């Protein structure tokens, strides 16, 4: 009996170890493919940014068009945005049976919204725009770094990425309770993208934010970014939900995103940011940055050096009129900051209030002239502008320095080694080590750091000697059963208490024995999904793989060793995966340890080919570039109509032809766009866009 027990124990441990190894390998596959996709997005955006920086528009119309295309949210001034997104002119039909909102919002409104969304109902566009309008007004008055105290509530609950998964938010509220005066929440960014209910999550969070402005706090994540939304589904999903008013809602959401606070401090001891830090992170600078300037963090605007010099001179009070070398008098620079008139007596409060408003307005106008903002653009007084005005004698930062501060806190990841290096895996932000964490915590007298941004199998993970906590709240992120979600609760002692969950309705009704079998089935399902995605990735790089295999096949035998296969695959895909361990799932066993790589690639092609008449080489190109082509399509489609107009195509092709030094007449571009418009409706849809690439590939 003792020997039998030991034998069963040994078998069970081996079985569990293999399951865990399979789970870890599956995890590595999903994560590597996800980060490679983010890297492609940043590379694509950098390419367009390069075109923008080196393109000289031939007319003001061309300049305005290109500017609106790539910096969508910034093209609207304050008054224009209000007029464009006018919700008051919209009528709600009598047939509408969904929830209704009236402002100021009450807790009953939030409860009604939750019930409506559980019943798969939608909120009418008028109420959505009204909610966004009120949210924007509230966010504009908030500081860049929110401050939360456990003195006023029993505990603070911190949630990580939700990514459009409304079931996870429902489960959090079910387990932990709704926001209330005694229950504070911090939602740490990445509310949208990937999931199908991103808009509903925004509506719920913004509603609670307005009802409990002191108890609900929202941080900006790297997915609260217009350019990221173009690739990961939020823009397309929103337009599909509301084709009539979707563009207005999207425009307003872009503007709301740029007003989201950047960080939260709990009791001045726990810093909550979405991504991480770097060796240059400066909380004082983050506190004073005008965060709304960065509609998309992926593109950092460059200010001309001449303007920068003038700015430095003006702020330092060194305004001068200098002569150039030719002896001509140079144009005078901007006038120095206005000196406020003598303050009236505090006894007359009305007079004193008028004096304060006049003085602040003069300072704002001077700052606008300093950074080339049109005086005709009216702007409300915000917390950020007041902070910047009161610190005119302090250090002056360039736009690039401010942009890097925001990029680092939204995109960075921790690493086990000391130091700070460029985050080459994601393509943005940096990797920061334990020494960087220690220095920041010591500098600002903090206990530990809470961040999100990375999916964790258990929903949370400590690193850097428990000084950095990653919290991720979207369960089943890659596939059903791939990971748990979690949130963390902090009381006055600031000791973290975790709650884990998995939003899976099937598992809740199973017995313990059934759950064991269900777990094994889940792992198999997740593993199958991961390897399917990996085979698609391999197939998409067939041509490059053949070249890499031939480099090892010196004698042109068509065969290579399995060890060389693993090295060749990594040299092409750069995913950092344990290919030798994954080999049995990807390559059929061979007796002599040699692989016939051409037949292996043919097998991959047979798996992916959906239609017999499509060539493998063509399908490979489409698989490899579909995400990029879809993102390019959405960038060109600047009004998010799902169609590219002839004018949009014309202006974009002028941009490409300028970069490639190809002389094209307007008639040539018109002929090209007409040839792509197969159904002759005057627009290009995504299928026609893809078909054009297919025809070009076939002709080659």
Automatic annotation (TrEMBL):
Q: Where is this region: Disordered?
A: 310-345
Q: Which residues does the UniProt record annotate as the domain EF-hand?
A: 540-575, 624-659, 664-699
Q: Which InterPro entries match?
A: Calcineurin-like_PHP (IPR004843), EF-hand-dom_pair (IPR011992), EF_Hand_1_Ca_BS (IPR018247), EF_hand_dom (IPR002048), IQ_motif_EF-hand-BS (IPR000048), Metallo-depent_PP-like (IPR029052), PPP_dom (IPR013235), PPP_phosphatase (IPR051134)
* Catalytic function, reaction form: O-phospho-L-threonyl-[protein] + H2O = L-threonyl-[protein] + phosphate; O-phospho-L-seryl-[protein] + H2O = L-seryl-[protein] + phosphate
Q: What's in the keyword line of the UniProt record? A: Calcium, Hydrolase, Manganese, Metal-binding, Repeat
Look up the record and name the cofactor or cofactors this protein needs.
Answer: Mn(2+)
Q: Which GO terms describe its biological process?
A: detection of stimulus involved in sensory perception; negative regulation of MAPK cascade
EC supergroup of this enzyme: hydrolase
Presence of the UniProt keyword NAD in the record: no
Top-rank taxon: Eukaryota
The protein's Enzyme Commission number = 3.1.3.16
Family as reported in the entry's similarity comment:
Belongs to the PPP phosphatase family.
Q: PANTHER family, from UniProt?
A: SERINE/THREONINE-PROTEIN PHOSPHATASE 5-RELATED (PTHR45668), SERINE_THREONINE-PROTEIN PHOSPHATASE WITH EF-HANDS 2 (PTHR45668:SF2)
Protein name as annotated: Serine/threonine-protein phosphatase
- Organism encoding this protein: Cochlearius cochlearius
Organism taxonomic ancestry = Eukaryota, Metazoa, Chordata, Craniata, Vertebrata
